[in-house]
Structure formats: structure tokens, C-alpha cells
Predict the structure.
Amino acid sequence: MMHFEIKEEYDCVRFGILKINGKSIRTPCFWIGIEPFSKPNILDYMHLKTILVNGYKILDKHVNIGKIHDYFKADAIMMDSGGFQLMKKNIDVSADKVLKIYRETKPDIGVVLDYPFNPQNPSDRFERWKKTIENTKIMFANSDGVVLMPVVHGYTTEELKNACREVKEITDPKIVGIGSLVPLVKTVNMKKFMEISKTEPFKFLIRAISTVRNEFPESFLHVFGVGSSTTMHLMFSLGVDSIDSMSWRLKASYGAIQLPAIGDRFITAKNGKRKELKEFSLLKNCTCPVCKNKSIEERKRLLDNAIANTFYNRAIHNAFVYVKEYEEFMKSLENGNVKDFLEMRMKENKYYRKIENYKQSDKNP
Ligand SMILES: [Zn+2]
């Protein structure tokens, strides 16, 4: 039912095929995050091969949406329980309930109900991991044909190794996810996190990926939630096989547009914290359903955060930019110039410049 094969490796980037339920997915792959019942439905505007459906609204509202492949048209569908949102809303949901939803909706991959850590308040992380591993046990024991992805969490290398060991006691996973890394690429207060990890957040992220990859060298490795147009290439360059992103929508909701190789930009920058769009040549090249055949002035108006009712436009534009960036990356893999492509895309990225130093210092501590 599922098979993962690594075809080639360039530096750290690995190129493979994930075969699942009769479908062949080229890896690294990128899953666009989708919430059922939310607008805009991005699938009305573009065909997506791989989507990650957040199941929390299905769980929260107790709705039966039937088979997920009838509801959303995509080649492969992964479903996440939305443990993070459920936890934030204090909704108590059991592993059995999540498994029941996976059985009814039949996604290609169902993610184990997990409890991500909070870097600002990491003191309860052992309790959260305990609940996650208990759910992993319950769900694998009763999987009944559902392909499950276990997710490991940890804020030190030791914690991650232990998490991997505990997963190995339950199953020999062909696919495995790493959670709790999302906040590490954001600029939030990391004091408490660093007291535990004893290292810079981004350096830990690199270490976390290599630790889990060493523990499961043959497994398809997914990193949750780190897939914006700037971070996706970083993740691929670190040897991650799979990423997802819901941020096309989140960023649109706070007014930001995405473009290749640069971070958040705003058509109207209201204060010094926001970066006004100056890279008009990038916007001019956009062929998304919103920008296509429009003048640059028209594009700016349609995407302007200061103009009402432009959220859908930004969301559609952002999703399109992510998918296009992913396609460009895959093209560079096929054409054998992935190294140049990554260099070109990430030369301005502060993290990219740090990667080699970090890797070296990990080799020679
Ligand atoms: Zn566009």
C-alpha cells in the first residue's frame, strides 16, 4: 500500500518517489494546507497534486463529509487532526475519535493526534509528549488499514532520540513527521526554549532534522508547517522529503503577499515593521489567477491590504506563488542545477548563510 524509494541525492537534497494507494508522488513534496468549510477554496482556482487537510473543524463540528477524495480533488491527501487548534480551543478529542474520522474520510495519510510544544512555555512538554506517544500506541494498534504518520517532538537532541526510540517500539515507520519546529523559524521570544535546547533556534532546527533522519534513514521525512516561499527551499536543502504550509492563507489575512525568494511584503506599509513592496519586477512576472493579464497598477490594487475585500485575492496569489516556487525547485532537480537554484533563491536568506557554519560546528563541537 505504501513504499518510499530514494532515487538520488544531491548534497543533502534527496529525490525520491512515494508510492501510496496506487499513486506515485515525486519527492520532495509540498502539501498545501487546506481547512474544510473555509473560503476561498483554493482548489477552485488551481489544480493541486498534494494537499494537507486540517481535520479540526470536522472533529469540532462532528460533520460527516464522506470520503475526502470526493470532497477535495487532489492526487494525494494527507489529513491532520488539528491537535494544535483543538488544544488551543480546549476541545478534548480522543485518538479513537480521530481514527474514526480517518476511517470514514479515507485520506492517503492520517497524522497521529499529537500535542505540539510551545517554546514560550515549554515546561509541560513531557506531559504533551506522553499524550502524543500514548495516542501513537492506540492509533497504530487499531489502524485497520489507515496509513498513519507518527510525529516526534523534542527540544533537545536527547529528547528527540528518545521520542524516535519510543516510536520504534510501536512501529517501524515508513513515513515520519517532526513537529514543534514552526515557532523556531519565527522571531518570537525564545529565552525559555534556549534554556532547554542550549542552542540557537535555527541551529536546533538543523540538528533536529539530521537527528530524526539518522534515526529513520530510509523513512519519508515530513516537517510540519515550515513551507513558506522562503523556508521551503531551506527545508529541502536540509534533506527534508516533505513539507506543508497553511501560511498562504494566514499571511493573506494579515495583509502580506508572497513572492519568490523574498519574505512578507505589503502593498501599503502602515508602520515601520511592515515591508512595503518594492520588487515590482517580481510582481510583474506573476501569472496567478489574480494577477494574470493585469497591469501592475491593477495588481497592486487587487492585492492592497489597505483596500477592503482583498483577502481572497492575496490568499489565491500566495498559494499560487508557493506552488510555483515548488515547481521551480522540482524543475531544477530534474535539470541537475538544484545547487545553483538554491543559491539563487536563498542568497539573501540569513538562515541559509548560517547553515554551513552550523553544520561544521556540529561536526566539530
Ligand atoms: Zn499574483
In short: The chain has a mean pLDDT of 91. Residues 196 and 362 are 18 Å apart (CA to CA). Residues 2-245 form a domain with the TIM Barrel fold (CATH 3.20.20.105).
